[in-house]
Amino acid sequence: QVQLVESGGGLVQPGGSLRLSCKASGFAFSSYTMSWYRQIPDKGRELVATIFRTSDSINYADSVRDRFTISRDNAKNTMYLQMNSLKPEDTAKYYCVAPTIGTWGQGIQVTVSL
Known about the structure:
This protein is an all-beta fold.
């Protein structure tokens, strides 16, 4: 079945870095646009970044541009989110999403705190 599994979250101090990974299975990963979303408690979901099939087009939310980098390895069916210069306001549950087919991962918590 179609599945997206996130990994790499955790607790980090402000100014630190984390790399999230999303392993895809059950569909032709290389043929689909992929995205990262995040959900902050008591707030709506935010589209963090999107990467097109061949990585030739990438979009970022203004709140993360120049700090986060989205990438993908189609040979490994995996997408990444490198997060640098993390801020407390980046604390959220992060989701890997295949928007075209409406599939979401289970989400992974990222907490930025002293």
